[in-house]
Amino acid sequence: MKINYSAMTDHLGSSAVRDILKITQGKEIISLAGGLPGEELFPVEAVRDAYNRALAGSASALQYGLTEGYTPLREAVAGRLTDQGIPVQAAEMILTTGSQQAIDLLCKVLLDPGDAVLVEAPTYLAALQVLGSYRADIHRVDSDEDGMLPEHLEEQLRTHRPKLLYTVPTFNNPSGASWSRERREQTVELCRRYNVLILEDNPYGEIRFDETPGAYPPPMAAIDRSSGGESCVVYTGTFSKIVAPALRTGWIVGPAGLIGMIAKAKQAADLHSSAIDQRALHELLMSFDIESHIRLISREYYSRMKLLSAEITSRGLMGAHFQEPRGGMFLWLTLSGGINTTDLLPFAVEQGVAFVPGEVFYSSQPMKNTMRLNFTHTPPELLPQAVERLEKALIAYNAHLEASLARTLN
Amino acid sequence: MKINYSAMTDHLGSSAVRDILKITQGKEIISLAGGLPGEELFPVEAVRDAYNRALAGSASALQYGLTEGYTPLREAVAGRLTDQGIPVQAAEMILTTGSQQAIDLLCKVLLDPGDAVLVEAPTYLAALQVLGSYRADIHRVDSDEDGMLPEHLEEQLRTHRPKLLYTVPTFNNPSGASWSRERREQTVELCRRYNVLILEDNPYGEIRFDETPGAYPPPMAAIDRSSGGESCVVYTGTFSKIVAPALRTGWIVGPAGLIGMIAKAKQAADLHSSAIDQRALHELLMSFDIESHIRLISREYYSRMKLLSAEITSRGLMGAHFQEPRGGMFLWLTLSGGINTTDLLPFAVEQGVAFVPGEVFYSSQPMKNTMRLNFTHTPPELLPQAVERLEKALIAYNAHLEASLARTLN
User: Fold this and answer.
1) A335 contacts A324 by C-beta, under 8 angstroms
2) A25 or A170, higher pLDDT
3) Cα–Cα distance between A163 and B3 in angstroms, integer?
4) Considering A296, A381, B93, B280, which has the largest number of Cβ atoms within 10 A of its Cβ?
5) Quick one: angle between helices B71-83 and B275-287, nearest 10?
């Protein structure tokens, strides 16, 4: 029968990452495309023990739970956030199915079709998809390596009167960039002045490559909560990168009224997220040294990033340039001007390597000569080969471009 | 700061069940209000073993998974459904965070504000909340004990040109009623003729009190798929009632194009549901005799229902009447005409018993003298006391009504 879909479905693009992962399935491809943590670093035994303990107690562990999430885990997460400079009460937070659901639910209770939202360029692809699904009017704010430019931000705030500013200010996906303290402060101040909520999406903030105390500015949520006045920062994080993604447990922090509204929306959406996973995570936090584990994975990811960085630098890749990220999971590569990385991708797959073309991370005016490279999932011994294949793909792509040009000229 | 919520939030009622559960927390109350399975029947050891096996293999069990769900579990669920007369390929099904998310995602890809939807009266409260959140124009179809009345259904189809008909035709929540085969066939036929999708929500269908083969009509999805022509039935089910709710694993079955669209919406909503829970459920299905377990809980629930039924019958409850459900988890009680069960509830809580007032299950024209009683969660030895307390509450409520009336007349 003929199905008449809702208007939102016109704005549900399929993820390019997803399509690429489909292409690469079953082939001998080194994929730097996914945003996946390194599996060999997952604390599998500790997780298994945690599930055992979570299921060793009363049968009520298997019963329906609260929409807001398992209270002891909420309290434990609130405690960790407080330690990180974001003082939080459990009533100001709910647990979600990964931080992706946090983004979705916030947009659901906030955005009507046509409402303006400001984003960075480039920014997290799946956030653009969520914003698109609510038919938001998305506007970009220009940035440099320290974050959004205050002048442009204010201009966009004044012009578009947005409801929300979405940002990944720490080890951005895809760019790896991190905002300076000053820009964080300026952004909080400007958004307060224009009565605009900020969604600070911070899945990578604990994966730090510099262990010097004070090496990094605090989260915007910490600045917001320490500076007096009414809070404008909603904060989301996740266990996906510091424990494992399959447990699908994230959180969202904000004013109690807003969190209450999100809880109502979540109740309609799925009643609650997996209560067993939440209990297991609570058991894990009680018995496993997660801070040491985060240091362990951060050091390993740092060494992989340095390896990838060195390989790219030594091969040159026809003038590609990048800034080494100071944390997180991604390296953002800008190639020379004439290269379109979406067109390059099939050549790369042909050579046996995959990446995400940069253009998918822009709401408008994409930089088509960019790409996102993940360095956390591929075994490090394969990284040199990945870069070698990328170089071969560039050579083949350029030869193809020149041949096309020659045909055009003939 | 002032938060301007989206228009959908005006339609996000809090669940009455939820509010009642809050009232009853920490009190000595026998609650027949929740829709909870009996905890003492959960297969805790088998579930724990299943998680152990799910986490004993490769670390990839902890990695991001497919939006559609863990393939071996999809295949196993498709196999069970096929055995139940609903032939399904894995591509026609995705796994969701409980069947609540299935309802939400289907409405999301289907409904724009003002789109008409037909429902039974009474019907599942949380489905009404989802429909409300998409600002659907909800219309009821009159029913008798065999299901929707075909004449009224056709009138409503013609008048409102709905996009969707939502129904729980087997052991309805809240009424416990089950549709006859004839009404199922007529409804499928009418909806095909008017090009309307049916969402058959079937969380309780396997909890059957009559073990005679052929005692029950097939699901509408089975009728739909066996009768040729283009399928109009979308089908959702869940492990919440046959294994345990905390695992939050449901499924939705429909035409491959629709399921693909729902997968896109799910990707934006939460990337995917817990992959560990899905792997554990797959392990459970491989090693645990779930069919025997379902017979075990069905027999126990049957004996509890009979006990509740006998207690109500013996006390009379001032002329209350009901039909014994032939399966599921709920008994629907209709009291004498002048009683408003919402007003009765505080008297009941005062006496130490809770129920859900029937009016919350109606989209319009509620029958205010009804209530939903759950018989699966309360230990059976407490059921007589629960009914005794309900009788006391009725006496106190009636005394209060008479006193009010006397004051009015004086």
Assistant:
1) no
2) A170
3) 8
4) B280
5) 50
What domains are there in chain A, each with its CATH number? 7-42+292-409 (3.90.1150.10), 45-287 (3.40.640.10)
Taking CA–CA distances from B261, the nearest residue in chain A reads A9
How large is the average pLDDT for residues A73-95? 96
Which A residues 170-229 touch B at CB under 8 Å? 192, 195, 197
Q: At what angle do helices B256-270 and A98-110 cross, to 10 degrees?
A: 90
A406: distance to nearest CA of chain B, Å? Answer: 42
Interchain CB contact of B274 with A (< 8 Å): yes
Angle between helices A275-287 and B275-287 (to 10 degrees): 110
Contacts of A174 (CB under 8 A, 6+ apart): A122, A124, A125, A330, A332, A356, A358, A361, A372
Geometric angle at alpha carbon A40, from A38 and A46, rounded to 5° = 110
Residue A127, burial from CB neighbour count under 10 angstroms (0-12, 13-18, 19+): buried
CA distance B184 to B170: 10
Q: Cβ–Cβ contacts within 10 Å for residue B385, how many? A: 14
What is the crossing angle of helices B44-54 and A44-54, to 10°? 180
pLDDT in tens, B224-262: 999 888 899 999 999 999 999 999 999 999 999 999 999
Measured distance CA(B74)–CA(A371) in Å, rounded:
34
| Helical (H) or strand (E) element with B158 | helix B150-160
The phi-psi region of residue B27 (left if phi > 0; otherwise alpha if psi is between -120 and 50; otherwise beta) is: beta
State the pairing for strand pair A197-201/A233-238. Answer: parallel
CA distances from residue B94 to B109, B127, B219 in whole angstroms, order as listed:
14, 19, 19
Note whether B265 contacts A: Cβ–Cβ < 8 A.
Answer: yes
Element (H, E) at A79: helix A71-83
Establish if A38 touches chain B: CB-CB under 8 angstroms: no
The CA distance from A275 to the nearest CA of chain B, in Å, is 5
Instruction: Show which of residues 294-353 on chain A sit within 8 Å of chain B, judged by CB atoms.
Output: none
| Chain A residues with CB-CB distance to B264 below 8 A | 9, 12, 14
Q: Which two tokens stand for residue B321?
A: 């009447």
What DSSP designation does B13 have? P
Above 90 in pLDDT, residue A275? yes
**Model confidence, pTM:** 0.95
- Distances in whole angstroms, Cα of residue B302 to Cα of each of A253, B32, B169, B209: 44, 16, 19, 6
Print the SS3 string covering B297-326.
HHHHHHHHHHHHHHHHHHHCCCCCECCCCC
Give me the residues of A, 378-397, that contact B with CB < 8 A: none
